[in-house]
Specification:
The protein is of the alpha+beta class. It has two helices and eight strands, in the order αβββββββαβ. It has a single domain, classed as PEBP-like (Phosphatidylethanolamine-binding Protein). The two termini are 15 Å apart.
Length: 177
């Protein structure tokens, strides 16, 4: 279930055509679309962000990134990473590196928080979403996913995502996404 505010933001973006203007391809050298994310990138292990790459989008002034788990046992997708104002000249992130301004993940901390599904849940899907924007965003450091989506409304010129799965069958039970 989505909170009313999130649903309104998504509806506003969809009706403005912001989502439909273009697509971009997002890849990673460490996992393929639909495949398992290696354990190294999970919060159960080294908790480093995987390398990501996307194609440049003509007219982009910046990029934004959201990583979330819609399978989490929470009312909304669990947010694992939020970043914005990634320079338009940047089309990749190295392993363990961020760019732009880092927002607040579902843990309350800024920066990347790797997959950590409850052991009993089976595999979760992690959506690495890249947004090409026609502007930079005026958001304070530590802003969250909802603030990012609201600020990006009407400025998304292309969007792409890479979805990977993670299932930690050997980890001790911990809460989180």
């Amino acid at each position: 279930m989505f909170r009313k505010g999130i649903l309104l933001i998504v509806c506003a973006l969809a009706s403005s055509g912001a989502w439909a203007q273009g697509t971009l391809t997002v890849t990673s050298p460490v996992f393929r679309a639909g495949a398992a994310i290696p354990a190294k990138y999970s919060a159960y292990h080294e908790n480093v962000s995987p390398a990501l790459k996307w194609e440049a989008v003509a007219g982009a002034k910046s990029y934004a990134l959201i990583v979330e788990d819609p399978d989490a046992p929470t009312p909304t997708p669990f947010v694992h990473w939020v970043a914005w104002n990634i320079p338009a000249t940047t089309t990749s992130l190295a392993e363990g590196k961020g760019a732009g301004r880092q927002g607040r993940a579902g843990t309350g901390n800024a920066g990347y928080f790797g997959p950590r599904p409850p052991v009993s849940d089976g595999p979760h899907h992690y959506h690495f979403e890249i947004y090409a924007l026609d502007t930079t965003l005026d958001l304070p450091p530590g802003a969250d996913r909802d603030a990012l989506l609201k600020a990006a409304a009407g400025h998304v010129i292309a969007k792409g995502e890479l979805v990977g799965t993670y299932d930690e069958v050997q980890a001790p039970a911990k809460s989180g996404g």
